[in-house]
Amino acid sequence: MHKKNVLITTSHFHPNVGGVETHLNDLVLALNKRNWEVIVACYKPLARDIKIPFVEKKSKKLLIYRMPWVGFNLVHLLTPYPVLEFLYLFPGLFLVNLYALIKHPEINVIHSQGLVPGVVGIVLGRIFNKRVIVSTHNLYFFPQNGYYKTFSAWILSFADTILTLSNQSKDEIARIGVPKEMIKPFRYWLNLKTFKPKDKIIARGKLGLNESFIVFFVGRLIETKGVKILMQVSKNLKNVTFIFAGLGPLQEDLNKLSAKQKNLKYVGLLFPEKVRLYMSASDVVAVPSTVDEGYGRVAMEALACGTPVFAANKGGLNEVVTKDVGLLVNPNPKDYNNAVKFALTNRKILSNLAKNTRRYALRYFGEKNVEKIIDSYEGK
Question: Glycosyltransferase subfamily 4-like N-terminal domain: which residues (predicted)?
Fold first, then answer.
């Protein structure tokens, strides 16, 4: 392949924030570094009122088209209803990608992020005779029967390659009838020069934290992220400091509880460099999601910062966190309570886990992971 021009089709992109959006930033940087020219076709932020132009040329190798669309937080409200979500997201995304393909005939690969963008990419790929790659970033929990499963299997079978974040996701896609040889797992990666350990004492000093045992949570403050589990554990373990960062519906509950409990702190939404500082300052980073995650970016970041992770034994998390760098815990208050107590009373074991984290991150979370995506672009 001589031309290196890819169209990234996605519902969400910067300035949206989230695991997928962060991955796409990493992907664009890695592709540009390898002389790929990237065009992104997406929506303007759907959940936030941000003024941003339709066309934005970020560099010689990155051009972004952002489609204006009806917001009102519908993108989150419709998540439990796949058909309605599809009807909401498909039309505008189809139009902005159609525009990009007409405007830029040099595009030779369409890389779609998720199921709805996947349909957009596959339809347009057939029309314009382009190679189509679909990345899945979540588990879809397809029903055993019905139109949702049948349509998804049929449309995905027209992709050239499907990239999944975990073996569990690969198995899920294969179970609905997509040929296994089309499905290839890949991993996210991190900038390991940015995500690196900092001295725990210095980090705590900068944050004004005391010498107690610290458990840190960062993410959307919603029930399915396990926030209520840690809130309950904090009531039982008063000799442990629990620090929560992020925004979401449960932030008011955290504010109220932090006013009553000295061992619970809610620090709001943090800039990335502050998140890394809290990770280095903590003894454990908790990822207690109650639903299957496609992959665990927070877990990756914590391990790269030198901190063991206590992750829910669900979804792709058990492919990120091994017994060498953390614990897999059933996501309920009793088991998380026991896990933190175990760490408190077995500091030597926790210290050994911490010693393994950086080496583990260097082995599995480096930018070399982009090569699997590029191989799929090139049909290897």
Answer: 17-182
- Do 5-189+366-377 and 200-364 fold alike per CATH? yes
CA–CA–CA angle 197, 138, 336 (5° rounding) = 55
Nearest to 9 by CA among 179, 123, 173: 123
Asked if the 5-189+366-377 domain carries CATH number 3.40.50.2000, the reply is yes
| Assigned token pair, 164 | 């999944």
Instruction: Return the C-alpha torsion angle 318, 322, 325, 328, nearest 10.
Output: 50
What are the sequence ranges of the domains in the chain? 5-189+366-377, 200-364
**CB atoms closer than 10 angstroms to residue 6:** 25
| C-alpha dist (Å) from residue 305 to 26, 144, 158, 210, 299 | 18, 41, 40, 20, 10
When pLDDT is cut at 50, 70 and 90, the band that residue 2 belongs to is low
CA–CA gap between residue 20 and residue 113 (Å, rounded): 9
